[in-house]
TrEMBL record:
Pfam families: Flavin_Reduct. SUPFAM superfamilies: FMN-binding split barrel (SSF50475). This is Flavin reductase. It comes from Jannaschia pagri. It comes from the Bacteria. Residues 20-172 form the Flavin reductase like domain.
Length: 201
């Protein structure tokens, strides 16, 4: 099968998200004039080591947020955000925070997610997350298409839950990292293996 996205795929469901998967999930915490917000984004990844930088993308809008969603609106307002990792045990709470609530709704409270303060920025984070990245906005990039925007941030603080460090390494199998697939699919990291690059000594 081959298709041009502009012509359509002819399938019952769009295969694109399933092709580009699994994707890590950014559980984005923000604070603004209307209060605290928490929402998951699966277009997310690390993009640089030094200084450490990450990005996530928002691809839809709400009528009460002027062409974007709560997270991006509040990041525009404050210039900071947190990204917490999602463990398998938190899958239902994470899913609950994906609902489109009116602006000003605190999804931490709605989903029963424990909230903690960040150390380097004025922003909430998921208190019991395996890890959280505190981020200062570096760029908001408008992407082709309606309401598509990429958010880039520099990591200014890192929280790691103690039980996730094994023999001096951050071990994703200790919390079974959750990832997003296509459609309504998710996957869990329960096993890892190592490969050595040919040029590594």
């Amino acid at each position: 099968m081959f298709y041009r996205p502009e012509d359509g795929h002819g399938l019952p469901h769009n295969p694109f998200n399933a092709i580009v998967s699994p994707r890590p999930i950014a559980w984005v915490g923000t604070r603004g004039a209307l209060g605290d917000n928490l929402a998951p984004y699966s277009f997310f990844n690390a993009v640089a080591y030094v200084p450490p930088q990450v990005m996530f993308a928002s691809t839809s809008a709400k009528e009460d947020r002027d062409g974007t969603k709560d997270s991006v609106a509040q990041i525009r307002e404050t210039g900071v955000f947190s990204i917490s990792l999602v463990e398998y045990a938190a899958r239902d709470r994470m899913n609950a925070t994906s609902a489109a609530h009116p602006a000003g709704t605190d999804e931490f409270a709605v989903a029963g997610v424990a909230k903690a303060a960040c150390d380097t920025i004025d922003c909430p984070r998921v208190a019991d997350a395996p890890a959280t990245l505190e981020c200062k906005l570096t760029q908001l990039v408008a992407l082709p298409g309606q309401a598509n925007v990429a958010v880039f941030g520099e990591v200014t603080g890192v929280h790691i839950r103690d039980d996730c460090i094994v023999d001096g390494r951050f071990d994703v199998t200790t919390f079974q990292s959750l990832a997003r697939g296509g459609y309504r699919d998710y996957s869990v990291v329960r096993e890892v293996f190592q490969l050595t690059r040919p040029d590594d000594s």
